Amino acid sequence: MTTYMQAAQVEQFGQPLVIQKLPIPTPGPGQILVKTEACGVCHTDLHARDGDWPLKPGLPFTPGHEGIGIVVALGDGVTAVKEGDRVGVPWLYSACGHCEFCLAAKEPVCAEAQFGGYTQNGGFAEYILADPNYVAHIPAGLSACDAAPLICAGVTSYKGIKETQARPGEWVVISGIGGLGHLAVQYAKAMGLHVCAVDIDDGKLAHATRLGADAVVNAKQDDPVAAVIEATGGGAHGVLITAPSLPAFKQGIGMTRKHGTCVLVGIPPGEFPTPLFDVVANCITIRGSFVGSRRDMAEALAFAADGKVKADIELQPLSAINEVFRRLNAGEVPSRVVIDFAAQ
Ligand code: NAD
Ligand code: ZN
Ligand code: ZN
Fold first, then answer.
1. Which DSSP helix (H) or strand (E) runs through 86?
2. Distance from the CA of 91 to the center of ligand 3, in angstroms?
3. Which of 99, 233, 261, 287 is the most exposed place for a label (fewest CB within 10 A)?
4. Pocket of ligand 1 (CB under 6 A)
5. In order of start, what are the domains of the chain with their CATH numbers?
């Protein structure tokens, strides 16, 4: 085994990642070593690079929380996976396993949760250390590159739609048709929902239509809220906001039907004004949703294994990571870029 690996690291917030030659880590007790095959690039990786959020990762760190690879070494005492298994190392890197939230399958909000590619080094590296109790198990028949976007964008979209509590035959708005949103459209259709896609880019909206969206609204038009209310006959029962843009949040609340639920998953830094009278008088629920539990992960992957959901991916080598970040920030990535480690 070679003893060094390439890893793209954030050394300073707001600065380009630096590709370093680092020692391949050795799994300690209870850990596994994963040889990375593919890792999707999430908009969260941009927020991480820029230090956008109140909880900041320690520097330097390796981002990437859509890493898929093969288990190549086991630390002492590991029984949950075996060498040769294909696993994903997700945002929910580990949790305590015994707090009230862990016991209720709400482990993403565990106070001791660690986050992959954030508080722990992630998948923009040739090897990743992982916790075998929290890795995603990739179904046979899904390639590493196809699976990568599912372990963050997929599970987050799927869980977010469930959190809207919209039922088959009802309307959901998916606001933001990027990495998360293009999968959300597919999950929502597979779940029997009517979909109204909202974005600021006509190309993304055309893509949503190809993926099955029943209506599309460009948020740059004069009154996107009125357009959604018209298209959905009174507002959507569920609204999922994936857009990393503050104006989308107030608009999303306006697009929510009376007694509907607006689920927030995009995390642009900052705050947004809430139209209090409308929320109260229309009995609207506003709810945050943070990735998903391990059970949600298995369900989200099963949709793809059944052929009902497929990520649209563009493959790039690790050496292109800073150009990929630039394009993602500029809204120039059509759906999801996946770093393909076979291309190194
Ligand atoms: P992305 O860049 O791939 O897609 C964002 C999309 O939003 C683009 O299509 C863009 O055109 C569109 N958009 C921008 N402004 C808009 C507006 N005003 N109205 C409607 N659409 C608009 O990003 P992504 O990887 O899908 O991530 C989206 C957000 O979700 C990020 O903030 C990310 O950090 C967050 N995220 C949250 C979770 C969670 O668990 N809650 C998980 C993953 C990602
Ligand atoms: Zn993500
Ligand atoms: Zn816990």
1. strand 86-89
2. 15
3. 233
4. 42-44, 47, 152-153, 156, 175-181, 198-201, 204, 219, 242-245, 247-248, 265-268, 289-291, 328, 331, 333
5. 4-152+292-343 (3.90.180.10), 154-288 (3.40.50.720)
